[in-house]
């Protein structure tokens, strides 16, 4: 293979031919991350474009040297034979190109699954005092393609990046999925998805409907921007309550404008209201058959009307209607300790009846070891 820069139109056209790809690998995401230099790359097998990568270049302080970051990518056929045995064909020219662009290291996040745990396994693990981590449980399924990719990355000198709680340096290694299609790939209907949920989730969805909670989703950038300030106000409220640092309003405005310009149905904002009061709000993203719950907010008041359950259910229904086969609730930590504060979020997601999914994680290839070490020390002190 060879790797070279391509224009954003060719990049987006290739993404459109794929069943799914991470939204972090779309050209639009490069515009969202405006503080990083962006580049669209193509992987070519002879004249044929067979893969793409959105590369974000993060500069070292005071030096024109960069970490080349490929979040949840590159977009390649990771299930193919070459990915199972000849990954160097793609990664060596990728590293060579990034080095020529001034990179001291490359970070990738292969979107391949290495293990899965059912909702029941996770629930039982939380109840079992002898289980502290997800990895203490034998997975329901191991991904052979993921295992082959991990083995090759190690052989090629790539270094896995992990931090406490199962979160990698950039994106979470553990996510929670709800499957919207059967093992044969046929789409499920709404009743089948509801049946996978636990009794509490189904009860809460009914309770929200009975209480008169109204959920609506936007279409296109104009509608999304019209409710963005309301979403952000509730999001800031949620951040204060749950003790995390919120992103500024401008970040979400850029996200909506960039992603909606790329595809009108790429991003949607959802609001759940009770008697006119905003009780929950979310942002959903979809690329092909993969739909994500990206950001969420909820009111401390009126929690008993279950707006969060209602808005999630509407997002799932719309993902189903759009042909998605996966509804992705994004990251979870790997802890199953009942006393850990993160367990509440895991339990909320487990109620959907989905599955915990382990990705291969993020991997670094140092290209200049001295600069890479300096960058690692700088990041550790932040």
Can you lay out the helices and strands and say which pair or pack?
Blueprint: E1 2-5, H1 8-17, H2 27-32, E2 37-45, E3 48-59, E4 66-70, H3 81-85, H4 88-100, E5 103-108, E6 113-118, H5 119-127, E7 141-142, H6 144-155, E8 159-161, E9 174-179, H7 190-196, H8 199-211, E10 214-217, H9 220-242, H10 249-262, E11 267-274, E12 277-287, E13 290-298, H11 307-321, E14 326-331, H12 343-350, E15 355-359, E16 362-366, H13 369-381
Parallel strand pairs: 4-5, 13-14
Antiparallel strand pairs: 1-2, 2-3, 3-4, 5-16, 6-7, 6-15, 8-16, 9-14, 9-15, 10-11, 11-12, 12-13
Helix pairs in contact: 8-11, 9-10
Please explain how this structure is put together:
InterPro entries: Acyl_CoA_acyltransferase, FEMABX, PG_Glycine_Bridge_Synth. One of its GO terms (molecular function) is aminoacyltransferase activity. It is globular, with a radius of gyration of 21 Å. It folds into two domains: 2-110 and 361-381, Aminopeptidase, CATH 3.40.630; 181-324, Aminopeptidase (3-Layer(aba) Sandwich), CATH 3.40.630.30. The chain has helices at 8-17, 27-32, 81-85, 88-100, 119-127, 144-155, 190-196, 199-211, 220-242, 249-262, 307-321, 343-350, 369-381; strands at residues 2-5, 37-45, 48-59, 66-70, 103-108, 113-118, 141-142, 159-161, 174-179, 214-217, 267-274, 277-287, 290-298, 326-331, 355-359, 362-366. Helix 8 crosses helix 11 (307-321) and helix 9 runs antiparallel to helix 10 (249-262). It contains 13 helices and 16 strands. It has a nine-stranded mixed beta sheet with strand order 7-6-15-9-14-13-12-11-10, sandwiched between helices. Strands 1-2-3-4-5-16-8 form a seven-stranded mixed beta sheet. It has 382 residues and is an alpha+beta fold. 39% of the residues lie in helices and 26% in strands.
């Amino acid at each position: 293979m060879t790797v070279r820069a391509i224009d954003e139109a060719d990049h987006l056209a290739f993404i459109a031919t794929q069943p799914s790809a991470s939204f972090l690998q779309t050209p639009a995401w490069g515009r969202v991350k405006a503080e990083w230099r962006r580049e669209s790359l193509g992987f070519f097998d002879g004249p044929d474009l067979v893969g793409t990568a959105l590369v974000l270049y993060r500069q070292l302080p005071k030096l024109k040297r960069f970490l080349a970051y490929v979040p949840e990518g590159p977009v390649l056929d990771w299930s193919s034979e070459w990915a199972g045995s000849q990954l160097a064909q793609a990664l060596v020219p990728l590293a060579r190109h990034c080095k020529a662009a001034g990179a001291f290291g490359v970070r990738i996040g292969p979107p391949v699954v290495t293990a899965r745990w059912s909702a029941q396994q996770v629930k039982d693990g939380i109840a079992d005092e002898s289980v502290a981590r997800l990895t203490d449980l034998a997975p329901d399924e191991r991904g052979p393609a993921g295992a082959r990719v991990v083995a090759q990355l190690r052989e090629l000198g790539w270094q896995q990046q992990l931090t406490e709680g199962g979160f990698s340096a950039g994106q979470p290694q553990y996510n929670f999925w709800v499957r919207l299609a059967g093992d044969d790939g046929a789409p499920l209907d709404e009743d089948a998805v509801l049946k996978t949920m636990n009794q509490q989730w189904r009860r809460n969805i009914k309770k929200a409907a009975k209480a008169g909670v109204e959920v609506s989703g936007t279409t296109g950038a104009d509608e999304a921007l019209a409710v963005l300030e309301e979403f952000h106000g509730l999001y800031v409220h949620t951040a204060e309550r749950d003790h995390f640092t919120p992103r500024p309003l401008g970040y979400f405005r850029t996200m909506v404008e960039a992603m909606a310009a790329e595809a009108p149905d790429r991003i949607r904002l959802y609001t759940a209201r009770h008697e006119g009061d905003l009780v929950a709000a979310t942002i959903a993203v979809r690329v092909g058959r993969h739909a994500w719950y990206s950001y969420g907010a909820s009111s401390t008041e009126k929690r008993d009307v279950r707006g969060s359950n209602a808005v999630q259910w509407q997002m799932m229904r719309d993902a189903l209607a759009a042909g998605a086969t996966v509804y992705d609730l994004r990251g979870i930590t790997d802890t199953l300790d009942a006393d850990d504060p993160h367990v509440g979020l895991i339990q909320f997601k487990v109620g959907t009846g989905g599955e915990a999914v382990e990705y291969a994680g993020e991997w670094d290839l140092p290209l200049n070891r001295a600069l890479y070490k300096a960058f690692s020390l700088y990041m550790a002190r932040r």
